[in-house]
Specification:
single chain; mainly alpha; 70% helix; flat
């Protein structure tokens, strides 16, 4: 049995699949960096609050995932022009 397929469609589907895999991998790598980097970053930026117990130096994977989603959505919103900051003085 021979399957006839259009090479352009297969190539396009393969590239889309590869792009989704790479995006997923990058997001998971970012979540891991946030999770394991927060403990070091918290001690550097907020040492007094960590010592007093006001800020926890370790976060869960779900919290790192939430922070990663927020950072991603903010970067997309401000990077692609969905939300922009108008510095002009047109409306006085």
């Amino acid at each position: 049995m021979e399957i006839k397929a259009n090479n352009k469609k297969l190539k396009r589907a393969g590239l889309i699949g590869l792009g989704v895999f790479i995006a997923f991998f990058n997001f998971i790598a970012g979540v891991l960096i946030i999770k394991f980097g927060w403990s070091k970053l918290a001690y550097i930026l907020l040492p007094g609050l960590v010592k007093s117990g006001a800020i926890n130096a370790s976060i869960t994977f779900m919290e790192a995932f939430t922070v990663g989603c927020v950072i991603y959505f903010l970067a997309k919103a401000f990077g692609s022009g969905v939300a922009t900051i108008d510095t002009g003085n047109k409306n006085k």
